[in-house]
Amino acid sequence: MNVTVLVENTSKREDYLHEHGLSLFIETKGQKILFDFGHTDKFITNGEKMGVPFQDIDFAVLSHGHYDHGDGIPYFFEKNKTAPVYLQMNALIPYFSSKAERAVVFEDMSYIGLNPILRKEPYYHRFHFIDSMKKLNDGVTIYSGFEQRRLVPSINSSLYMMKEDGFVRDEFQHECCLLIEENGKYYLFAGCAHNGIVNLVEQVEQFAGITIDVVFSGFHLHTSKKGNQVAKEEVLSLANTLKEMKTIFYTGHCTGVEEYKQMKEVLGEQLFSMSTGDTFTFT
């Protein structure tokens, strides 16, 4: 398996563009998979420099309904005319933040959901909606419907969704994860882990009856708005819990640079960073 970071908040090379967003290209078992689409077309620009065959991608998965993971979808559709995009059935409804610095403001809330054009043709017919679980083929499954049992990121408190009677706290039912089995090992891909990375890992393991070997995900400990990050105690509590697992974690995007350093001190070789242009190979 090869996992290539097409776009992320950081870049180790000047010739690769970066942004507040995430997109991964996964090659496994003869399948080419796109996981998330970033905010703009930067994942396409970077991918073409890396030789990613966007026209040959078999299917794509959207982790959740926020702009920094899904607003790049139209650019992907320009390159690929057939691949289905799997997303949770609530991913296209409006989502907002009380702290995000975005131009689109509604009743003092910044709109952070997906571009509304995605609810219309020619985009909508490419979407395949899932509820709780969807097995795509032997070794590839999408999971959703997570319970927030423990260690949920506290900065979720600024995130909302729109319902008929107004704004309510986002419960993140629109979040989903991709589980891939290859050569007897299990790989889990998530976007921001708004439901808590511990909950995602433990519940997928419970659903599938397996132990996850490798995780790629942000941990939602730090957002792009200055001052919007969790306390150090929360970071360390998460790190100490992850240390008890038999899993290797690759993280970036919404984890935060300082937060990553704090966790790395606890987790050592159990935690690695991902940056735009990185490729990770597993055998």
Structure description:
The mean pLDDT is 95. Helix 5 (232-243) packs parallel to helix 6. 45% of the residues are buried. The chain is built from 6 helices and 19 strands. The radius of gyration is 17 Å and the shape is globular. It has helices at 42-50, 67-70, 73-79, 197-208, 232-243, 257-267; strands spanning 2-7, 23-28, 31-35, 59-61, 85-88, 95-97, 105-106, 109-111, 127-130, 133-137, 140-144, 159-163, 166-169, 176-182, 185-189, 214-216, 248-251, 271-273, 279-281. With 283 residues, it is of the alpha/beta class.
Put the structure in a nutshell.
With 283 residues, the chain is α/β, with parallel strands linked by helices. 19% of the residues lie in helices and 28% in strands. The protein contains six helices and 19 strands.
Fraction of residues in helix? 10-25%
Instruction: Determine the oligomeric state from the structure.
Output: single chain
Low-confidence stretches: none
Number of helices: 6
- Classify the beta-strand content into a percent band: 25-35%
Overall 3D geometry?
Answer: globular
If you compute it from the alpha carbons, what radius of gyration comes out, rounded to the nearest whole angstrom?
17 Å
Strand and helix order = EEEHEHHEEEEEEEEEEEHEHEHEE
Structural class comes to alpha/beta
Count every beta strand, where a strand is a DSSP E run of 2 or more residues: 19
* Major sheet strand order: 9-5-4-3-2-1-19
Provide mean pLDDT, rounded: 95
- State the distance separating the first and last CA atoms: 6 Å
